[in-house]
Amino acid sequence: MELTLEVIPKSTWGKNVRSEYKSDWDKIRKLVYQKAMMKCQICYEKQETLHAHEVWEFDEEDHIQKLVDIIGICEDCHNTIHYGRAKLVGTDQEAKEHFMKVNECDELDWMLAVQEVSIKSMKRNKIKDWKLDLSLVEEYLK
User: Fold this and answer.
1) GO MF terms on file (predicted)?
2) Whole-model pTM?
3) Long-range CB contacts (< 8 A, 24+ apart) of 12-18?
């Protein structure tokens, strides 16, 4: 799986599986870790700890943010995916280096990825009324 930069619209920050399914979050994340066999699903490195990362699709026409997967990933991949947050907390250089290492690419590819995610961010942040589709969670709770 390629390591990409992702953008979550500001209006949905904090609205996620963990916040919406508080009592079931431990069960869900442990199932994700078990499925990943404690190996990052992006860089494939064996890990002692994983992060449960929510994978979203965005329907900008109908304003739907749909959960399509939850994967187990390492801290470095998670930091890179959420590059905007990495910039805020001062780990952006590490994110850049990890992106280039995992994707076996150069700085130009990195700059293009940052530009692309910036454009997506501007578009998605113009939409204020995103609807969350968390129907995938039911699969984890069966």
Assistant:
1) endonuclease activity
2) 0.91
3) 12/65, 12/130, 12/132, 15/132, 16/54, 17/52, 17/54, 17/67, 17/70, 17/134, 17/137
